[in-house]
Amino acid sequence: MAIPLSGSLLDACVLAVVRKGDVYGYRLTQEVREALEISESTLYPVLRRLQKEGCLCTYDEPYQGRNRRYYQITELGHAKYDAFLEEWTMYKDKVDRVLMGGNNNE
């Protein structure tokens, strides 16, 4: 089973970063950019969708006279991350077998 590399991979990367600890949007973008080329304008709709799906929640903290919005992973977000990780592992193993010249039916 192949997973789509666009939306699902971005969701998985976002959840992976947030599961390490609460994080604000700009910092989250910087960490996800280490793996994928994305802009803040691409990331914020993903964050809103994950929040609407119940995978993330938010809270605001004052920072230098303004509020900074932090994202926090929920139980549902942890479960979704675990499912992504399982799918990714299966996908990666299949690709590794093809790239290394192995048999896909092993």
Automatic annotation (TrEMBL):
Start and end residues of each Transcription regulator PadR N-terminal domain: 14-81
Protein name: PadR family transcriptional regulator
Signal peptide: none
InterPro entries per UniProt: Metal_resp_DNA-bind_regulator, Tscrpt_reg_PadR_N, WH-like_DNA-bd_sf, WH_DNA-bd_sf
